C-alpha cells in the first residue's frame, strides 16, 4: 500500500467515526425544519438527557471501570493546559475580531468552551465505546468546572454585570447532575460496592438512547438563518475552538506521550466544537446571543472536517489508537 493509499484509508476510518454523529445532528436540523420536532420536544429531550440519561451513563461507566485508570494527573494537566492556553490567546487577541467591547466575553467563551458533554462524549463513544467514555469522565468533570469559572470571569468583565457570582457558580457545580453522577460513580468504584446487573443493563439501554437523542436535540436547536451578521468574529472564534485547540493538544501529546487510547480521548475533547451552554449563559446575561449562536453553528459543522483530519493524522503519527 502506498503512502497516499494509507492516508486515504485512515481518512475513511476517521470519517466512519465522525460522520454518524453529524448525520444525526443534520437529521435533527431537518426534522425541525419540516416541523416534525419543535422547541417543546427539544426542551423536554434536553431535560431527560441532562437530568437522567447522561448522569446515569456517567455514573455506571465511572463505577464499573478500573479506578486507578480513571484518575490520571497527566491527562488532567494536558487538557487543562490546552483550555487555559486557548483562553489566554483568545483574551489577548479578541479586540482584533470584534467591534463592540461588550462582545469580548462572548467571543472568548465561544473560543475555549467545548461541547464535551454531548459531542465530546459522542466522539469518544464512537471511537472507543464505553472505555472511551470512562477515560473521558474525570477530565470532562474537571474541565466543566473550569469552563464555568472562566466563562463567568470573561463575561462579567466585558458585560459589566454581576448576574453570575462565584458563589452561584459553585452552587451550580455542586448541584450539577453530571457532576453528581461522576462523584457517585467514583465513590462506588473506590469502595468496591457491587453494582446489580439490572442497573448495568438499564444503564446500557439508557446509554444507547441518550447520545443519539442529544445529537437530535442539538441539530433541532441550530438555526441556519441570518448568518450574515457577526460572521467575522464567529469565524475567528470557531477557528480558535476547532483548529487552535486541537493543534495545542497535538503539540502537548507530542511533548508528553501518553497511552494511545487516552490520547485519542483527549484529542476528541479538545477538538469538540463550541458548547451550546455558551449561548444559554450569554442569553441570560443579555449579551450578544446572535454571535454566540453563530459560533456554535459554524464550529459544529466545520468540526466534521477538523476532527476527521486531526484523528486520521494522529493515527498516522502513531500518537493515538484505533478502536
Count of structural domains:
1
> Which range best describes the helical content: under 10%, 10-25%, 25-40%, 40-55%, 55-70% or over 70%?
over 70%
Which class do the helix and strand fractions yield? mainly alpha
How would you characterize the largest beta sheet?
none
At the fold tier of CATH, the topology name is Na+/H+ antiporter like fold
Text of the CATH class? Mainly Alpha
Averaging pLDDT over every residue, what do you get? Answer: 84
Describe this structure in words.
The chain is mostly helical and 323 residues long. It has one domain: Na+/H+ antiporter like fold (Up-down Bundle), CATH 1.20.1530.20. The chain is 80% helix and 0% strand. The chain has 13 helices and no strands. Helix 4 packs across helix 6. The radius of gyration is 19 Å and the shape is globular. 48% of the residues are buried. Keywords: Cell membrane, Membrane, Transmembrane, Transmembrane helix, Transport. InterPro entries: Mem_transp_PIN-like, Na+/solute_symporter_sf. Belongs to the auxin efflux carrier (TC 2.A.69) family.
